[in-house]
Amino acid sequence: MLKYTVVGAGLFGSVFAFEAAKAGHQVRVIDKRNHVAGNIYTKQIEGIQFHQYGAHIFHTSNEEIWDYVNQFAEFNRYTNSPIANYRDEIYNLPFNMNTFNKLWGVISPLEAKVKIDEQRAILNGRSPENLEEQAISLVGTDIYEKLIKNYTEKQWGRSCTELPPFIIKRLPVRFTYDNNYFNDKYQGIPIGGYTQIVEKMLDHSKIEVNLNVDFFENRKELEDDADKIVYTGMIDQFFDYTLGTLEYRSLKFETEILDIDNFQGNAVVNYTDSENKFTRIIEHKHFEFGTQPKTIITKEYPEDWEKGEEPYYPVNDMKNNDLYGQYKNMAKENSKYIFGGRLGMYKYFDMDKVIFEALKTAKVELRLK
Ligand code: FAD
Fold this sequence. Notes:
Elements: E1 2-7, H1 11-22, E2 27-30, E3 42-45, E4 48-51, E5 58-60, H2 63-70, E6 83-86, E7 89-92, H3 97-104, H4 109-120, H5 131-156, E8 186-188, H6 195-202, E9 207-210, H7 219-225, E10 226-231, H8 235-238, E11 248-258, E12 268-271, E13 280-283, E14 295-304, E15 313-314, H9 318-332, E16 337-339, H10 341-344, H11 351-366
Parallel strand pairs: 1-2, 1-10, 2-9, 6-12, 10-16
Antiparallel strand pairs: 3-4, 5-8, 6-7, 11-14, 11-15, 12-13, 13-14
The structure holds flavin-adenine dinucleotide (FAD).
C-alpha cells in the first residue's frame, strides 16, 4: 500500500512528493497531462526554453524559498522590465518616472505627482465605485486611458465601469527611474528552464510518476491504493460540482517560430490598446538572453473559461470565494484528502507562494521540524 498518491505533478504536488519521499514514504504522482511540471512546464525549441503555459518569472523575498529552489537549478540575473505598447507608443512598466517622462515630459517626481493630482481631481474626492474610478484615483486619467483601461477589459472580458474597484486596490507606482517590475529581493529564470526543477524533485527511488492518468477516470483504484491523497486539481470537480461550479479565466496561446533573431527586443510587451485582442506578446529567448538565429513569440488571449478548458486564473470575487468556502468545509470532513495548489485551494499563487504552501503542508503532514 502506498502512503501517498499525489494528483498533479505541478509545483505543489512535486514539492510535497519530494518532501514525503525524503521522509521515507512511498509516493505515486499522477498527472493527466503528458508531462510533469504543470503550468511551469518549459521545453526546448530551436535551442530556446519555451514557456508553454505563459511567461514565468521567479521572484521572492523569502530567503528560505530562494535557497530551496536553488538546490534544483541555477538562476540567471533576469529582471522583469515589461514594456507597454499603446498604438505603437512605447512606455515603461511598472508606472515610474520613465513612464511619466514619456507621457508628460515631466522630469522630477514632484512634477509627476502634481500632474497625477490634477487628473485625479475629476473624481471630486468621491470614493471609487468601480475599477475605472479606482484607477483614476490612483494614477490619473492619462495612464488609465492608455495603459490600464483596454488591457484590463481584455483581461476580464468586462468594462472597467462594471468591474469592482478592489481588483486594483494597489497599483505599482514608483516615483523613481526604476523599470524593475518586482520589489522582491530575489528574481531570475532557471538556466535551462523550469521543467528540470520538477524532474529533479521527482527523481527519487520512492517516487513513481504516472503521466496521462486522469484521477477521475481511475478514482476508485487510486483511492484504494494509498493511505492518503494529495489533490491539486479543481476542488469543485473533486466534489462533482455538487454545490455549483467555480469560475475561472482562461487563456489561449498563439505561438510562432520566426526566422529572425529578435522580434521585439524584450521578453514581455503588453498591448494596452483595444484593437489587438491579445494582452501581451512573449518573446521567450529574452528570458535567457538568447542569441539563437531564430526566435519564438507567443500571443496571449484571455478567454472565458468553460468546462474542459484550462482553468488558469480563479475569479476570487465574493460569490466564488463563498462557494469555495463551502467546498473547503466539505474537504475538511475527510482526513484521507489533502487539498493544495492553485486549483485545490482556489487561489492564484506565484511560484514562491505555492512552494511555501506545499512545504507548510508537508511539515504538518509529515511532522517535520
Ligand atoms: P499546476 O501547475 O496547475 O499543477 C496542477 C497539476 O494537476 C497540473 O499539471 C494538472 O494537469 C494536474 N491535474 C489537474 N487535475 C487533474 C486530474 N483530474 N488528474 C490528474 N492530474 C490533474 N508565478 C510566478 O511566480 N511568476 C510568474 O511569472 C507566473 N506567471 C504565470 C503566468 C500564467 C499565465 C499563469 C497561469 C500562472 C503564472 N504563475 C506565475 C503562477 C504559477 O504558474 C503557479 O504558481 C504554479 O504553476 C502553481 O502550481 P500548482 O501545482 O498549484 O498548479
